[in-house]
Amino acid sequence: MTHPASQLDDIVHQRLRLGILAILVEAQEADFRFLREQLLVSEGNLSSHLRVLDEAGLVEIRKGFEGRRPRTWIRATDAGRASLDREVAALRELVARLDAANGGPPAS
Amino acid sequence: MQHQDAHQTLQKIDGLRASTRERLHSSWFPNILWGTLVLIGGPIADITGAWVALYWAVIAPLGGIATGLYYHRREERLGLRDNPWPWLAVAVALVVGAFIAGAFLPGDPQGTGPMLVAVAGVTAFGMLSHHRATIILGIVSIGVCITVALLNPPIPNVLMALVLGGGGVLIGLRERQRETNQRASR
């Protein structure tokens, strides 16, 4: 039996990328501005993390126009949704083990 | 990974998912609109009988278009889109089901058949949007419909409409207030 920490995916596990996927799995697609406002990050930072997720096939990025203004829509792929599910399952298992070892959840 | 970190990460993921769902499925407008239409439809059904079908034949498509426009505009403004097909499927099943129940249940003088279809639809919408108050309203309304069918009171449709329509309007007003408060605090 493998330790749950070994099931954490390096690409998905990064905090901001987890946040991006957490938002995208709840919707069909979200635009760049919405993600930036929800995650409170700079454009450059968000762009670089989206590129990593795009290259891994976890999100799809669609650039379009609204009138004359460019608008970028992002959606989670099936692989992206499955990755987040696996990540959350691994985290929950890890937390359950740590809770058991420490006699309960940490004081917040 | 530290114990505290793992907990915080999970909480953050759950929080982001919940707030995205909440923003995506804002339901104050459809709740107030359809709640009001149901409140008006109740007395019409009790006074005019079968003519209520005409009321719904005119009002339901208009209400559907208004609801669709509300969500479309909101999604474009917000930058967050939902998959419309499950919602459309429930809406079409609700309309078709209610008309079939109204047309082919002659032994249903209280008109509970179409109303049961409508409250089943409301429950389904509540489940799609993960909205607990709407699910509870749907389940309570199913109970009221069955009670009305068993007890046969003099104004069955007004009673059912008061619960379903009144409940919908109240949920809509509460949602509207909550959204206004959230916007003010941002």
Key descriptive features of the protein:
heterodimer, A: 108 residues, alpha+beta, 3 strands, elongated, B: 186 residues, mainly alpha
Average residue-wise pLDDT of chain B: 88
Largest sheet of chain B: none
Q: Radius of gyration of chain B, rounded?
A: 19 Å
Distance between the termini of chain A: 30 Å
Structural class of chain A: alpha+beta
Residues in β-strands, percent of chain B: under 5%
Helical region count of chain A?
5
The outline of chain B comes out as elongated
The proportion of residues forming helix of chain A, as a percent range, comes to 55-70%
How many H/I helices of chain B? 7
Please, what is the average pLDDT of chain A?
A: 89
Q: Can you describe what's shown?
A:
- The complex is a heterodimer of chains A (108) and B (186).
- With 108 residues, chain A is an alpha+beta fold.
- Chain A is built from 5 helices and 3 strands.
- Chain A starts with 9 loop residues before the first helix and ends in a 6-residue tail after the last helix.
- Chain B has one domain.
- Chain B has 7 helices and 1 strand; from the N terminus they run H-H-H-E-H-H-H-H.
- The longest helix of chain B has 30 residues.
- The two termini of chain B are 32 Å apart.
- At the A-B interface, helix 2, strand 1, helix 3 and helix 5 of A face helix 1 and strand 1 of B.
- Strand 1 of chain A pairs antiparallel with strand 1 of chain B, so a sheet runs across the interface.
Explain the layout of strands and helices.
The complex is a heterodimer of chains A (108) and B (186).
Chain A: H1 10-13, H2 15-24, E1 29-31, H3 32-39, H4 43-55, E2 59-66, E3 69-76, H5 78-102
Antiparallel strand pairs in A: 1-3, 2-3
Chain B: H1 3-24, H2 28-48, H3 52-78, E1 80-81, H4 85-104, H5 112-128, H6 132-151, H7 156-185
Helix pairs in contact in B: 2-3, 2-7, 4-5, 5-6, 6-7
Please outline what is shown here.
The complex is a heterodimer of chains A (108) and B (186). Chain A has 108 residues and is of the alpha+beta class.
